[in-house]
Amino acid sequence: MRMHRIKKHFERELAKSGITINGPQPYDIQVHDERLYMRVLLHGTLGLGEAYMDGWWDCKDLATFFTKLLRSDIAKAVPNFTAHFLAFSQKIINAQDKRRAKRVGELHYDLGNELYESMLDPRLVYTCGYWRNAKNLQEAQEHKLRLICEKLYLRPGQKILDVGCGWGSFAKYAAENYGVSVVGITISKEQLAYGKKHCEGLPVDLRFLDYRDLPKEFSEPFDHVVSIGMFEHVGPKNYSLYMETIRKVLKPNGLFLLHTIGGNGADPWIEKYIFPGGVLPRIEEITASLAKTFIMEDWHNFGTDYDRTLCAWHDNFIAAWPTLLKTKKYSEKFYRMWRYYLLCCAGAFRARNTQLWQIVLSPHGVSDGYRRIS
Questions:
Q1: Which residues are catalytic?
Q2: Residues 103-362, CATH architecture
Q3: Strand partners, 225
């Protein structure tokens, strides 16, 4: 009887989002195990994601399912105690300190280059593409890299620092197309090995280094600094330190471009299974961290482009799955987890619950004013 009441509660709340349990639409949820309702009631988004991984429910169009959920008020009707606990713990514990920070490199970025090579564009750009005038994922990523270079007003001979360089995609592009030299740092050994190989012969120096060690490693400041999709791993307790560290290694007249997802903290399922220690910064947290270090010159939001990027990654992943499965490195449960990750994130961007920001910062303000590039 109790389970029946809980199910009816979920039916009513989902109906407000236009979703029917076991309904005919591709975005309707198909429930295979009715223990799902209690699991979600007790564990919120963590329970929902784990139940999907365990095969307790399915949905043909996960991205639209999450879009509808996030545009409704269902979150208020289903208490997410796990999320509240995570948010509380983040105020007490520095989950992104120097010791813990390497977890995301080991558990996510070191999953295997074959996974990312099959999913991403040829340059292995693992951040939001810029889809204006782009016909496909490769063009969208090239447009994004060019946009960043233009926003920094790169000139031949300049020395650029890339904080969180990934597989070296920006470093390679900037060195080849703008005549600059680039130093990139990462905490992923797999990314570092790949990046070094593919940047051979270019003025690119990639290193295994935590951002906190930058001032000790480099005595000469850089002309410009870029950070693309790394700030999400810094954590609220470290935002001010991060900005202070970047400021120390940047020339007084240089620019710092921060490319980051923005949202409302951390999701328990994403934090546990995808990005350990990951936290999406809030606007007020970023602006507070800038108070003593930088002047904000430009703030550009193109979060809707991440929906298209994630869906393109998903399509590539699905197409490559038979080959990936043969490597025996990835299980069927991984398949469900990875699809869930890509499509729940796509739904969050489509619902405008999550944003993508490119922020241009300067130490003292551009004297004659910064001219926006878009």
A1: 345
A2: 3-Layer(aba) Sandwich (3.40)
A3: 161, 256
pTM of the model: 0.91
Q: Where are the domains of the chain?
A: 2-79, 103-362
Report the alpha-carbon angle 24-74-81, nearest 5: 125
Amino acid at residue number 234: V
Q: In tens digits, what is the pLDDT along the chain, a chain of 374 residues?
A: 477 788 888 888 899 899 999 999 999 999 999 999 999 988 888 999 999 999 999 999 999 999 999 998 776 555 554 444 444 344 545 555 555 545 544 565 667 788 999 999 999 999 999 999 999 999 999 999 999 999 999 999 999 999 999 999 999 999 999 999 999 999 888 899 999 999 999 999 999 999 999 999 999 999 999 999 999 999 888 999 999 999 999 999 999 999 999 997 678 899 889 988 788 999 999 999 998 899 999 999 999 999 999 999 999 999 999 999 998 889 999 999 999 999 999 999 999 999 999 999 999 999 999 999 88
In which residue are the tokens 């564990």 written? 43
